[in-house]
Structure formats: C-alpha cells, structure tokens
Amino acid sequence: MRVALPRTIAGYALRSSGFHQLVLAILSVMVFGISAVPLELQRRIINDAINSGTANLIIWLAAAYAGVAVLQNVLKLGLNVYRGWVSERAVRRLRQRIVAHATAAGTGQLHSAEQAGVEIAMVLSEAEPIGQFVGISLSEPLLQGGVLLSVIGYMTWLEPWMGALSIAFLLPQLLFVPPLQAMINRRAERRIGVLRTVGADMLRTQHEPGMRNPAVDQVFALNMGIFKIKYTQNFLMNVTYHCAVAVALGVGGYLAVNGRIEIGAVVATVAGLGRLNDPWGDLVTWWREMAVVRMKYRLFVQAVDQLEGSGDQDFDPHQCPAALDR
Question: What is the C-alpha separation between 28 and 22, in angstroms, rounded?
Fold first, then answer.
C-alpha cells in the first residue's frame, strides 16, 4: 500500500528532502553572511581614492573586493546546482508515482479517457512546478531575507537615513503585491482544471480537421491575464526602486556637497538599494511561486487520492480540481 502524500507542500518538501533542506539552509546563510562586505569595501576604496589614500591600500582593498565577490559567487553556484538536484529529485518522485499508478491501472482494469487525461496532465505539467519549488522552499526566503536584513543593517549603521530610505522603498510594495498575486492565483487554479479537461478530451473524442477547441482558447486567455498582472507588478516594483534611487541621489548629493557625509556613503547607498532591489524581487517571486504551488499541490494531492482510492468506473475528473470555480 502506498504511503499517502503529505497534505501541504511544506510537508512534502520536508519528507522528500529534509536533510538536503538543512544543507541548503547552511549554504544560504554563508552566502548572505558576506553580502554587505562588498558595500563596505566599495565605500572604503572610493573614500581612500578621494582622500589621497595610499595606492597599495587601494590595490589591497580592490583585491579583497574581487576575492569576496568570487567567494560569494562560488557559494551561489554550489547552492543553485544543489537546489536543482533537490528539485529534479522531487519532480521525479511525483512523476514516478503517477506513472506507477497508470501502469497498474492500465493492466488491471479498463482505463477511462478522463482518468488517463488527468494522469497525462499531472505527469507532463503539474509535477514539475511542484517539484521545482521543493529546492527553493526554505533556502530562497532564508537567502533573500538574510541579504535584505544584512544590507539594511549595514546601511542603517552607516547612515540612519539610509536605513529609513530602504524601509520606505519596501513599504509601498506591500500594498499592491498581495492583491495582484491573489488575482494570479485564481487564474492559475482555473488553468489547471482546463488543462486536465483538454487532456481528457483529446483521448475521449475525435475532432474534425480545423476544428477549434474552446478549452485551448480559454487557456490562452488565462495565460495572457497572468502575464499582464505579473508584468504590471514588476513595472510597479521597478518604478518604486528608481524613485528610491532618485531620492538617495538627491538627498545624498545635497548632504555631500554641504560636507555632512562622505561621497562614498552616497555611492554605498545607491549600491545598497540595488542590492535590496534584487533580493526583494526574488523574495516576491518566491512568495508568488509559493502561493501558486501551494494551490497546485493541493489539487495534485486531491487527484492522487481519487486516482489511487477509486476505480475507473466511478472516477470523476471534475472532482479532482474541485476548487477551480471558487
């Protein structure tokens, strides 16, 4: 008897890769632990150059900057390759489970077109995003959240107004990201049900040459809706970032001209905002994927429960994505 799948994506990630999640977490801490070091080295190089520092010191600082950058990227390379292995391992497990059931059902009893269509959709398209998320389920928020806290802490230590500016840069995005993401989730959920219907319909019926399948047009419309919302979200995030950079240049330049801060601090502020923009965008992307994958995994588990718990005679494909029209 097969062991039931965990009811949540977090439970599945822990069951399928618990030890590997710990290793990924350690690598993530190592990466974000040195994330603020290049900013400090950059600030010191610029200030020493302007203040006529010794050439040897500048060369050593530049070499240290290059060394830290190489170390950080080597750690990132290892982290990303390891993530990919964990993700593909999880995808393989999900696909093997559905294929094993389909093989057993196909040899032991009449396999309905509806059931086969759902299985095809699950193997080809639904297992991959769920498994891919397993590799980043813990390490991504830990890495990007750690980078955010490290950079904000460094900027606050350097100049308190920099920390305030970095927080002000993030706050407006908390207003528009959640509602836009909820709109994406609803469309992604409906798309799963439509794709399952397409798979079953292809096996059950024969269409005349040139006949349009309305379900395919519906998938197109849902995908376009997701694209429009997602790129609108990205547009708003980019505008917010560039507004924060403009404020940093204006305020920082004014203070530097009046001798209240070093020019290196202004450069570090702009660079720091750039360091905030990337991890914040990655964190929003992770949250977006988590919301969609959580819904996809719930529907996947519902389908597995029905496929493995009932015969073909009483199989109903519309019960698998039961929440599609909510």
Answer: 10
pTM above 0.85, yes or no: no
Closest C-alpha to 18, from 29, 30, 6: 6
Give the model's confidence band at 200: pLDDT under 50 very low, under 70 low, under 90 confident, else very high.
low
Which single residue is written with the structure tokens 């469309």?
187
Instruction: State the pLDDT at residue 3.
Output: 72
Report residue 46: phi and psi, to 5°.
-65, -45
Helix (H, G, I), strand (E, B) or coil at 214: helix
Higher pLDDT, 21 or 280: 21
The residue among 65, 67, 246 whose CA lies nearest residue 168 is 246
CB 286 within 8 A of CB 141: yes
Residue with tokens 């995005």: 173
Cβ 197 vs Cβ 303: under 8 Å: no
For 73-91, the pLDDT digits (tens) are 999 999 999 999 999 999 8
Residue 169's H or E segment, with its range, is helix 160-170
What is the Cα–Cα distance from 11 to 122, expressed in whole angstroms?
19
Both ends of the chain: CA-CA distance in Å? 33
Q: Are 80 and 282 in contact (CB under 8 A)?
A: no
If one compares 322 and 107, the residue with the highest pLDDT of the two is: 107
Confidence of residue 213 (pLDDT cuts 50, 70, 90): low
Instruction: Tell me the residue ranges of DSSP E strands in 119-198.
Output: none
Report domain extents, the chain. 9-319
* Side chain identity, residue 78: G
Within 10 angstroms of residue 156's Cβ, the number of other Cβ atoms is 16
Determine the topology of domain 9-319 in CATH: ABC transporter transmembrane region fold (1.20.1560)
Instruction: Answer whether 28's CB lies under 8 Å from 143's CB.
Output: yes
Summarize the confidence of residues 276-282 as an average pLDDT. Answer: 82
Q: Does 170 have pLDDT greater than 60? A: yes
d(CA 53, CA 105): 76
Q: How many residues does the chain have?
A: 326
**What's the confidence (pLDDT) of residue 321?**
40
CA dist 205 and 207 (Å) reads 6
